[in-house]
Structure formats: structure tokens, C-alpha cells
Amino acid sequence: MIQVAIVGASGYTGVELLRLLINHPQVEITCVTSRQNAGSPISSVFPSLLGRSDLVFDPVDVELIASRAKVIFTALPHKAAMAVVPDLLKAGCKVVDLSADYRLKDAAVYEQWYQPHTSVDLLAEAAYGLPELYREQIQEARLVANPGCYPTSVALGLAPLVQGGLIDLSSLIIDSKSGTSGAGRSAKVGSLYCEVNEGFKAYGVASHRHTPEIEQTLGQLSGKPVSISFTPHLLPVNRGILSTCYATLTDKHATGELIELYQQHYRNEPFVRVHPEGELPNVAYVRGSNYCNIGLVSDSRTGRVIVVSVIDNLLKGAASQAVQNMNLMLGLEEGCGLQDLPLFP
Ligand SMILES: NC(=O)C1=CN([C@@H]2O[C@H](COP(=O)(O)OP(=O)(O)OC[C@H]3O[C@@H](n4cnc5c(N)ncnc54)[C@H](OP(=O)(O)O)[C@@H]3O)[C@@H](O)[C@H]2O)C=CC1
Ligand SMILES: CC(=O)N[C@@H](CCC(=O)OP(=O)(O)O)C(=O)O
């Protein structure tokens, strides 16, 4: 069994990692951290795990973590992640970082959208953890930067069109909606029930920090700089992301033709499912699973293609994608421990 640790295990992505890794046949969780819950059994914080694990939360102590585990998931807020990742790597561990700290290749871009970076030297070597696009780099990496939730849904939704040169990249508009768990488990007024329930709002308009991450991936796929308009929205549901992407086609293509292209593109990808013509995805079709579902329509009236993609933000948008990356880094079967079907309805 491979020994793994979860740093930041008391958060929303942390508990999803616990749920997945407790059932993973090739790994054993040997260390979980939380500053606020240090000394408490995990089942006292998450009663859903009662009877399934005797683990007790430890404080964040790099030496302790590295002495107990070889693979570490850092499920910490950005900035807190880069305070521990370099020392974990120095201690010989492999790291899958769920934060944004190692996703952007250009330190100046990171510093423009986040804060000063304290381990710029690791940006070049970190593999961007979207297996469907960067599988080989992930297999070789000791540090994987797990993508953001919105960027995962958008990159998978647009990759076939962008790589095929089928759209005018300057026309891209992306409109995404996320469930409230995307904001994490720490107390914030904006995440309170009365603030979110029965409401629906846009936020981060023309300023959300996932914009440069999406532009970086689409730029790599097209070989050209890409600028997008990206607007996230907050949905009054616990989990799920739906991204609607609009772009002008450079030539006429019927919906059926584009769906055939997507089906071919993703034919060997076990976690990407393309809907047949006339059917579009719903966040409920992927909830609780590692799937990304994609549907699209070519609008001959406007010459635009409209792509709709859905993921579970806590799973393909975070924890299950992190486990998919770990499997690749360790040479395990890529879908090991990730075969759960979505929870429908
Ligand atoms: N929620 C989502 O849908 C997604 C989240 N992510 C990213 O994954 C990471 C974790 O997200 P999420 O689980 O939602 O966050 P939460 O706020 O739910 O959990 C954060 C965890 O980190 C610990 N923590 C917080 N601050 C620090 C610190 N300064 N030093 C050490 N530990 C700290 C917390 O425990 P304690 O305070 O007790 O130490 C807790 O265990 C973030 O970077 C987030 O952006 C990525 C994709 C999707
Ligand atoms: C609903 C909501 O608040 N979502 C978060 C995105 C969460 C996430 O995955 O982002 P990082 O991993 O890049 O932090 C937000 O908009 O900041």
C-alpha cells in the first residue's frame, strides 16, 4: 500500500479526498491535517465517516507529514499551499496541490492576479494536472498543480474546437455557474444559506482569477495568445459547475459534424462523455463522479457554436481529478478508485 497524506483534510475538497482514498485499493491514508481540529478524530468533524477510519487530525508539521507519507495532497488555500509544498518536495515526497499556487507558468501573471510568489523556481517543473491534455507530463511529475474547477470545465469543453482551429479565438465568451461548495468550507457571509438560497448572481466580472488560467491552457492548445471574457455565477446548489462557451466558427459546421469531432477526440477518455445531438448536460448527470459531460449546438443563424460542459466542482473540479493525477504519477491504473457512478437525481 502507498502511504498518502491530506493536508487541509477538514475542508470540502479534503473530505472528498478522504471519501475517495478510504476506498482506494492501492493507498493507505496515514496523515490528515487541520489546524483548528488538531487532536480530534476525523469522524467527530465528519460524522459521515463514522466507523470507516480511526484517523485523528494533526497540525500542519512538514516533518511529521513527510515521515508518514510519500504522496501528499495539499488541499489548502492558495498562499498557504506554497508555504509547505517546497519543503514537502525537499523531503522527497510527491505532491498534488489543489490550490492555484503552481498552475500559472508565468510568475508575473500569478503576481498580477494573486500575490507575491514565494517559490517561483517550481513553476516551470509543475505539471498542469488535466490528464486529458497533459497526461505524459503528469506521469513524470513530482509536483502536479491540480487545475481550478472552472478552468477544468472550460478546457475540456473547448479543447477539440481550439486544437482543430475551428473557432475565432477572439470571439470567445465563457459563462460559468458554480455550486456554493466552490467557495470552500470556511465561514463567509456570502456563503450563508440566506445569502445564497433563492438567489443567483454574477461575480468577479472581468476580474476573476481563473481568467488567466483558462487563457494559459487555451493559448497552449492553439499556439497563440488567447483573451477571453469569463463570467462566473453563484448557483444556489451545493455542488456542480455548468459552463456555457460561445465562439464564432471560422467555417460552417453542422451540429452533428462537431459532435462527431468531439466523440472522436474523447474516444479513449474514460471520464469525458459527449452527449448525442439534441441532448445537453445537466449538473445532476455528473454529481458525485469524476465525469465531465459535454453537449453542443452549432447555431447556423449566428455562425456561433455553443458548448455546454458540466463537472462536479469538488470531484473532477478538485478531489477526484487529484486522485486521477496521483494514479498517473504512481503508474497505477488511471481510473483506480474513481469508478463511482453519478448520484442521480
Ligand atoms: N471547493 C472547490 O470546489 C474547489 C477548491 N479548490 C481549491 O482547493 C483548495 C482547498 O479548497 P477547499 O477544500 O474548498 O477549502 P476549505 O476552505 O474548505 O478548506 C481549507 C483547508 O485548509 C486548512 N487551512 C486553511 N488555511 C490554512 C493555512 N493557512 N495553513 C494550513 N492549513 C490551512 C483548513 O483547515 P484549518 O483551518 O483547520 O487548518 C481546511 O482543512 C483551495 O486552494 C481551493 O481554491 C480547487 C477546485 C475546486
Ligand atoms: C463558487 C466559488 O466561490 N468558487 C471559487 C472557485 C473555487 C476554485 O476552485 O478555485 P481555486 O482552486 O482556483 O481556488 C471562486 O470563484 O473563487
TrEMBL record:
Query: Mind listing the UniProt keywords for this protein, alphabetically?
Result: Amino-acid biosynthesis, Arginine biosynthesis, Cytoplasm, NADP, Oxidoreductase
Task: Identify the CDD domains for this entry.
Answer: AGPR_1_C, AGPR_1_N
Q: Might you report a single GO cellular component term?
A: cytoplasm
Which pathway is it part of? Amino-acid biosynthesis; L-arginine biosynthesis; N(2)-acetyl-L-ornithine from L-glutamate: step 3/4
Q: Which reaction does it catalyse?
A: N-acetyl-L-glutamate 5-semialdehyde + phosphate + NADP(+) = N-acetyl-L-glutamyl 5-phosphate + NADPH + H(+)
Q: Which SMART domains match?
A: Semialdhyde_dh
Recorded E.C. number(s)? 1.2.1.38
Query: Which InterPro entries does the record associate with it?
Result: AGPR, AGPR_AS, AGPR_dimerisation_dom, AGPR_type-1, NAD(P)-bd_dom_sf, Semialdehyde_DH_NAD-bd
> Where does it reside?
Cytoplasm
Domain of life according to the entry:
Bacteria
Q: Pinpoint the Semialdehyde dehydrogenase NAD-binding domain residues.
A: 3-141
> Which Pfam families would you find in this protein's record?
Semialdhyde_dh, Semialdhyde_dhC_1
Keyword Cytoplasm among UniProt keywords: yes
First-listed, main subcellular location of the protein, grouped into a coarse class: cytoplasm
Q: Where is the active site?
A: 149
MF terms per GO, please? N-acetyl-gamma-glutamyl-phosphate reductase activity; NAD binding; NADP+ binding
Q: Which GO terms describe its biological process?
A: L-arginine biosynthetic process
Family affiliation: Belongs to the NAGSA dehydrogenase family. Type 1 subfamily.
User: In UniProt terms, what function does this protein have?
Assistant: Catalyzes the NADPH-dependent reduction of N-acetyl-5-glutamyl phosphate to yield N-acetyl-L-glutamate 5-semialdehyde.
> What protein name is recorded for this chain?
N-acetyl-gamma-glutamyl-phosphate reductase
In the UniProt record, the gene name given for this protein reads: argC
